[in-house]
Amino acid sequence: MAPVQPLSPSATDIQSLFDRIAPVYDSLNERLSFGLHRVWKRMAVRWSEASPGHTGLDVCCGSGDLALMLAQAVGAAGTVYGLDFSAELLAVAEARTRRTHAPATLHWVQGDALALPFEANTFDAATMGYGLRNLTDIPQGLAELRRVLKPGARAAILDFHRPHGALAQQFQRWYLDTLVVPAAKQMGLTEEYAYIGPSVDRFPTGPEQVMLARQAGFEQAVHYPIAGGLMGVLVVGHHGRL
């Protein structure tokens, strides 16, 4: 198994990585977040303002957590598209759909977040969970999200965040080095999860994400630190107040 490059991995590297970790992705997320990732994802769905009858999009949908939450928000009259470039994760998402009652119509699409396969002004609400940090071109990813959203629509983007305080920064490093890496090692995925620390280190801070969102064409952009600043949600929109 080839090691993942520690700095600036290519799109192919990242795609291969997520294909490999797909079988344990859900269980590892649950373990490493102590179940709190579901709370943070529900917060993102609320900030997206997905409502009954809406057409929603979850970019970098992974195994489908956020897409299924969007489906609950848009209801039987709504439609949700979950997009990811990992075929293995999409297979997990499709299997979950068969086991879980989802009121909305769900479509799983293999595609590139940097070239979304949708027409402009298609979606009423969008989410992204732990995907922006892994894009090889974050400005392009934000511009594509802006393109496919309808005027007045919102997107909520959940990801790790670099906290400001030295104590919080030390805790985050301890969390990654002491919990994440050993847990991945137990599952035989040491090399796969070694990418997280460097990816957080080079990820734009909250204010930088706001600036990038505005440069991508969003008239409104607010970053909300959560979980003591270890995580954050970037909420973006245009032609409306946040």
Give an account of the 3D structure.
The protein is an alpha/beta fold and 242 residues long. The chain has one domain: Vaccinia Virus protein VP39 (Rossmann fold). It contains 10 helices and 7 strands. Helix 3 packs across helix 4. The radius of gyration is 17 Å and the shape is globular. The chain starts with 10 loop residues before the first helix and ends in a 5-residue tail after the last strand.
Fold blueprint:
Elements: H1 11-21, H2 25-32, H3 37-48, E1 55-59, H4 65-74, E2 79-84, H5 87-99, E3 105-110, E4 123-129, H6 138-148, E5 149-160, H7 166-186, H8 190-193, H9 196-202, H10 206-215, E6 220-226, E7 231-237
Parallel strand pairs: 1-2, 1-4, 2-3, 4-5
Antiparallel strand pairs: 5-7, 6-7
Helix pairs in contact: 3-4
